[in-house]
Write a structure and sequence with these properties.
alpha+beta, 7 strands, Small Protein B, Chain: A, globular
Length: about 160
């Protein structure tokens, strides 16, 4: 049983990074899971440091390939052949998923943002969301509702 538990932890899902700013800056709609094409030092760096997803976004080129751009994976200091930190990386998606993303981006004000990076069965994956940018008043409203929810939760805890 102990070996089963160890194996399950080894091959289970492990969240590496979460883009919390995406929920604040964008209104998120559909999400997609995509595999990442990485080189060896990038995989090791993901396991050790984790990426910076704050500026990461997805682009679909004229050849119908999806690429993640501006995702920073820090280079390992002891690696013999270090990688470029902000290079564009190819995504592994089905063609119908790429078509859905392309059609969504064609609509007014929509974009593709990276919301999570994780390992699933020892394979690097990212979660992509179709998103629309929030206006300044939308962000203020989100902060206001979050504060009201916190106050309500605190009040219920005090009354118990």
């Amino acid at each position: 049983m102990a070996k089963e538990k160890e194996k399950k932890q080894e091959f289970g899902d492990r969240l590496v990074a979460n883009n919390r700013r995406a929920r604040f800056n964008y209104e998120l709609f559909d999400t997609f899971e995509a595999g990442l094409v990485l080189i060896g030092s990038e995989v090791r760096s993901l396991r050790v440091h984790g990426p910076d997803l704050s500026d990461a976004w997805v682009d679909i080129d004229e050849r119908e390939d999806a690429w993640v751009k501006q995702m920073r994976i820090p280079a390992l200091h002891h690696a013999a052949f270090a990688h470029e930190e902000k290079r564009k990386r190819k995504l592994l998606l089905h063609q119908y998923e790429i078509e859905r993303m392309k059609n969504a981006v064609g609509r007014d004000g929509m974009t593709l943002v990276v919301t999570k990076c994780y390992f699933k069965n020892n394979r690097g994956k990212i979660e992509i969301a179709i998103a629309r940018g929030k206006k300044k008043h939308d962000k203020r409203m989100a902060v206001k509702t979050r504060e009201l929810d916190r106050e309500a939760a605190a009040a219920t805890r005090r009354n118990r």
